[in-house]
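Can't paste images in this forum, so I'm doing it all in text. The chain is below; anyone willing to post the predicted structure tokens underneath?
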Amino acid sequence: MADNESYFNPRNKGAWEKEYCLNEEIRKKYEKYGDREIRGQRNTGTDGTVPWTRNTGTDGTVPWKDYEMRKGFTRKPKPDDPATLVKNYITPSGLERLKDEHRFLLTRERPAVTEVVAWAAGNGDRSENADYQYGKRRLRQIDGRIRFLTKRIEAAEVVDPEAPRAGQAATRAFFGATVRYANAAGVSRVVSIVGTDEIDLNRNHISWVSPLGRALMKSAAGDSVVLQLPGGTEYLTVLEVCYQRISVEPFREPPGSEASAKGLPRRR
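Text version of the structure:
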């Protein structure tokens, strides 16, 4: 073909496909870089179509320019700043519950589910095997929970509410404090400030990062605090601040767990 012929005109589709298939180098570069590198310059034809001229080298092949991507795509991204380890403030009872759940998943529940998956894998086609698919999904859930518990335990900063305190630490509300307060209507309530892994509204355990926990933090008996809520502002009066043992609901094996169904012995 001539240099100025409409090489990529639809009427020359057959000739283009033939040479496209014969020239392996062109085919590979076309798939990698698109057709803009081999089409050459754009000219407007007299018939209203957009012909594309083909630049042919002296040896009959199509010369290729070194493909250069924009710097925005080739620039090496900056490494992320090292994440700061956030302390997980927790009471001794709360930490013990996390450890019990971690031990249960690692030593009892996961081996039981693994046994079921191994049994299901030997039954034949895995694509339509409900036991196998559910077991694999359950293993992913268990592994994700184990990783989460491991990180929470490693970052745990144990604060004992019963530890001796002196000065303002004994009279003001900090982590582990049990606070009695009253709202504007005179209704009183007692709450205990605990960690994010120990929240239990049935026991009036609130997180130290919750709106109420932040409002009560560093307050003393007789202080008035402002509680910012989505529904408006509420004014509270602190009546009493004390530090006592905070009982956390212990970990119990969930009913229907694979370990309970198999009756595996408890490991300590």
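The domain at 168-242 is CATH 3.10.50.30 (Chitinase A; domain 3). The longest helix spans residues 92-121.
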